[in-house]
Amino acid sequence: MKIVKLSDVPAEVSTDKIFRGEVRIQRLIGGSEDELRASVVNFSPGSKNVFHTHTFNQILYVTEGKGIVATEDKEVTVTPGTLIVIPAGEKHWHGATKDSIFAHLAIMPPGRTNF
Fold first, then answer.
1. pLDDT of 2-11, one tens digit each?
2. 29-67 pLDDT, tens per residue?
3. Strands 37-43 and 67-71, how do they pair?
């Protein structure tokens, strides 16, 4: 069993080119290739990522603030307690609204490192 307390995990500023604005990531688990990966992604107001796809289903669970999850066809405002499943290959983006911070837990299969 592994127990991780969010307050014990430092938030690192992301320099990944997928993000626009200030985004901090707290990597909770997933140090090896065969481990499930989970991170909390913290967006400052107005920060987001650009349209992108994944080769795996992406699971996001909103933990704080107000955000937007969008596909090419629609945008949905999401708040804490919302679970989002983005199918593999679906073009999408997600991020904070202009007036709120936004944080979500991102869960990825072993071996995947991008958000």
1. 899 999 999 9
2. 886 666 788 999 999 999 999 999 998 899 999 999 999
3. unpaired
Look at residue 72 in the predicted model and tell me its pLDDT: 95
Per-residue tokens: 38: 């989970």
Domain boundaries, the chain: 18-108
User: Domain 18-108 maps to which CATH number in 2.60.120.10, 1.10.3720.10, 3.40.630.30, 3.40.50.970?
Assistant: 2.60.120.10
Mean pLDDT for the chain overall: 92
Question: DSSP characters for 54-111?
Answer: -SS-EEEEEEEE-EEEEESS-EEEE-TT-EEEE-TT--EEEEE-TTS-EEEEEEE-TT
Collapsed DSSP state (helix, strand, coil) of residue 3: coil
pTM as predicted: 0.90
d(CA 52, CA 66): 21
Which tokens belong to 14? 């992301």
Give bridge partners of residue 78 from the DSSP assignment. Answer: 67
What the block records as the tokens of 83 is 């679970």
